[in-house]
Amino acid sequence: MKKSITPGQIKETNRNLVYQHLYKNPDSSQQDISYALRLSRPTVTALLAELEQDGMICKNGVIASAYAGRKAAAYSVTPDYRIAIGAELLASEWKLVAVDLYGRELKRKNYQVAFQNTPEYYDSLCSEILHFIKELPASDAQVLGVGFAVQGLVSPDGQQIAYGKILPFEGLTTAVFSALPFPCRLIHDAASAAAAELWVSPELQNAVFLLLSEHFGAAFIQDRSVSAGKHGHQATIEHLQLYHNGKQCYCGQSGCVETECSISALLQDGESLPQFFAAARKENTAEAARWMSWLSSLAEVINAVHLIYDCDYILGGHIAPYLKEDDLTVLYSQIRAHTSFPEPDDFIRISKMPEHGISTGAALPFVQDFLNQM
Ligand SMILES: [Zn+2]
Known about the structure:
The protein is an alpha/beta fold. It is built from 11 helices and 14 strands. It has 3 domains: about 5-75, Winged helix-like DNA-binding domain superfamily/Winged helix DNA-binding domain (Arc Repressor Mutant, subunit A, Orthogonal Bundle), CATH 1.10.10; about 85-195 and about 355-374, Nucleotidyltransferase, domain 5, CATH 3.30.420; about 205-350, Nucleotidyltransferase, domain 5, CATH 3.30.420.40. It has helices spanning about 5-25, 30-35, 40-55, 120-135, 190-200, 260, 265, 275-280, 285-310, 325-340, 355-374, and strands at about 55-65, 70-75, 85-90, 95-100, 105-110, 145-150, 155, 160-165, 185-190, 205-210, 215-220, 225, 310-315, 350. Bound molecules: zinc ion.
């Protein structure tokens, strides 16, 4: 049977079009919207009134409209009409962040708490999240959800930790967060960081995001989505074996990428990244030699994965703020030495969001889902 579009559906489509236009073009006048969307003035007037009444948009003063001789009211999306919470769980810390519909940080707080895989630990985390939200100028109804970034592999539905050896929480489900009256989702930390990178990189389509932090992680970005894979272990490059008799990895194997290309592999006991790079950037130091050796292992990894997945490679994680263009030159030259055909030097770049990418990236999928349904 042929289905026809109802007037209600047309109205909803137009309402969403107006909302999306205002999201991308803040401070638009009624005339601007009417002209851009080719909708009649009365239609736009009615939709703006409805969206404003629902609190989804607001008037911010007046502007000189491009399509009218006099000043007109300027409309924008209400940035905190909905908000999302990101939580990063680490061995000795929680990092919480609240973001608005533009992914802008509304509030951030870190808590020093030692990890324990106990109900008390998760209850205490839920209490802190509720308290964190209470301190915001936002009600519970505005919260789209809470994303928990974890150092572990997550089931494709984001409800269970499928593999977790860095922190012993394998099998954990979001049921431990049942005290939170919001949708909750677990997200692999590398996938979180990749989500944040996507947010700040509108041009990005396909890429391998490398999370170069205390531990090594990776995420595949395909058609602007972070791909989880069939079983949730897409892009677990960290456990590719580089050397058969290498250092012991937490996964049980030895010589994994994790044991050669993570920050743990780079630094010696008690050494910090600022200390290391202060010495590594000087000529003929032991640190400079160690840095070249680390880059050389990283080049080997990028080359191996690049043979399978020909796309851009983004270097992110806690090491990203210390990376320089000269390091990319070293990587390209090492990759050329490994690979049998000519490689252009245009596929590796440094992350645009090296700071706070993981916690923010855990919140952003909720915002993206909200915007996608508008
Ligand atoms: Zn391993």
